[in-house]
Amino acid sequence: MKKLVVMACLLFAGMPALAMDKVSLQARQVAQQQGRARVVVMMEELGHGKAGALRDTTFAREQRVRRQGDALLGMLPGKGYRLHRRFARVPALVIEADATTLARLERNVWVRKVDVDRGGTGGAVAADESAVLNRVDLLQGVGLDGNGIKVAVVDTGVDTDHPDLAPRVVGQQCFCSHISGSGCCPNGQPTQSGAGAAEDDNGHGTNVGGIMVGAGPVAPRGALPAAQLVAIKVMDGGNGFCCTSDVVAALDWIATQHPDTDVVNLSLGTWDLFAGACDASASYLIALKSAVDTLNTQGTVVVASSGNQGDLQRMAAPACLSNVLGVAATWDMTAESTTFLGCTEASRSPRQPTCFSNRSTTTALFAAGAFVRSAGLNGGISSYGGTSQAAPMVAACAAALHQAAPLATPAQRMAVLQLSPSRLTDPATGRHYPFLDCVDAAKLLDPARFLVRTNGSQPLIPGRAESALPAATIPVLRVADEGRAPQRHRRARGPRSIER
To answer: How far is CA 458 from CA 198, 402, 449, in A?
Structure first.
């Protein structure tokens, strides 16, 4: 109690603001026009050195974030705000504030930045063509099936009783709000926990989850059919999210409730686009960065889709964050002209960047993502295309790399994904990007796993004893053979449909 009183006194003392730019102009305008604005209040980090934000993820940090939030809320006018969300390890608050409250926040020395809580949308087969091009279809043949691996999908939820997914689901949570403060979770509230919390009412998340862990009885088999799946719903039935703070809440929850998660996939992005790294562009982005920092420290790689607006210089958040792998999409087939996601492609070929993909100078890599057949609602099959389908290919590979080399850090796994000799040149920008080659990335970390390897090569990260590894010969997908998209044998199925 004594610490709380001292903190409150310091907050009240406040010190004069150095510049009147903590509260964004947009937040002030919304409050003036609508009476109140839903904002993310990012607080200054307290109690650590320069590198403390990465190292300090203990219970003590959670206590400090709680005390700091309590003290700040205690200094605000009681009738001037409504609290929407708090986080365990991210020093931020989400409130609906009037103009008086915003002015109070502007003068507070421990408030770092205040911005409108912006929303976004999901970036939206067969998985056969895309999986072959990305070389994730070969993982199971070398013992990389996801056994002992946990992945998280932050999306519209998943069809939790789908035969391809039900055995894999080990956790469910929902953070789904409307801007008014009401909720879009299955229970009609902005937050829901436990069984049924991540039930999908759109289909986007079910497709994404199937790409990663689908067992294959119904839809094409996913990359890691033995992995565990944690499903978090943050988007509504229209495949959109009102507020980035719901995504922050999902990442914060994963860090505290499933700290052993190996990779998080975010096939979603903000309406706002950003050139280059966007780490400090707004309070909600600072909060996102803080949540990802915590996950990285715990051993988790975070992957996000770049977005589907066809922007050649900018990406959506979270893909634009410096500690997130932002993924753009290519076609996976040779085909004629098509109009999709707001743009027209004169022709299509494997590894050709799609016209709808956002990309910038900080895009991490491309992966095949149009079109991908995977699990669908009501226990069926769906076909989607977009950066949302490219991202889970990369995420699944990042998880497989942890199975191949358990001692590899997130930074090392992220690095080898971008070190592939498979490259592409984007004709629209002239820039060169890595193209996902999961087998090559795995070889860099654990060459002993493969019979086909460079003489004298040594793994970058200690793997496991060669005697314990299954013998396998890995075929090489040659660029010269790309006149036709690689095919795998399929059971007869119904007509393809493209859902958005």
So the answer is: 43, 17, 11
Are 131 and 281 spatial neighbours (Cβ–Cβ below 8 Å)? no
In sequence order, the 6+-apart residues with CB closer than 8 A to the CB of 89 are 57, 61, 62, 65, 252, 255, 256, 290, 291, 294
Structural domains in the chain, sorted by start: 2-116 (no CATH), 121-456+477-481 (3.40.50.200)
The residue type found at 391 is A
Q: What is the strand order of the sheet 169-175 is part of? A: 191-193, 169-175, 228-233, 150-155, 263-266, 301-305, 325-331, 365-376, 380-385
List, for residues 470-484, the tens digit of each pLDDT value.
433 333 332 233 232
- Residue spans of alpha helices (H) in 298-386: none
E strands within 180-283? 191-193, 228-233, 240-241, 263-266, 269-270, 273-274
Residue 17 φ/ψ, nearest 5 degrees = -65, 140
How far apart (Å, rounded) are the C-alpha atoms in residues 145 and 403?
Answer: 9
Helix (H) / strand (E) element for 96: namely strand 92-97
Tens of pLDDT, residue by residue over 364-418, are 999 999 999 999 999 999 999 999 999 999 999 999 999 999 999 999 999 999 9
Confidence band (pLDDT; 50, 70, 90) for 193? very high
CB 99 within 8 Å of CB 79: no
Q: Give the chain's length.
A: 500
Q: What's the CA gap between 131 and 125, in Å, rounded?
A: 9
Cross-strand partners of 335: 348
DSSP class of 354: P
CB-CB contact of 245 with 40 (8 Å): yes
The pTM score is 0.85
Hey, what amino acid is at 253?
A: W
Are 461 and 412 in contact, with CB atoms under 8 Å apart?
A: yes
pLDDT tier, 140 (very low <50, low <70, confident <90, very high otherwise): confident
Give the per-residue SS3 of 409-469: CHHHHHHHHCCCCCEEECCCCCCEEEECCHHHHHHHHCHHHCCCCCCCCCCCCCCCCHHHC
Distance from the first to the final alpha carbon of the chain: 52
- Give per-residue pLDDT as tens, 351-376: 999 999 999 999 999 999 999 999 99
What is the CB neighbour count within 10 angstroms for residue 58? 10
Q: What is the pLDDT of residues 66-95, one digit of tens each?
A: 999 999 999 999 999 999 999 999 999 999
φ and ψ at 490, to 5 degrees? Answer: -130, 155
Residue 29: count other Cβ atoms within 10 Å of its Cβ.
12
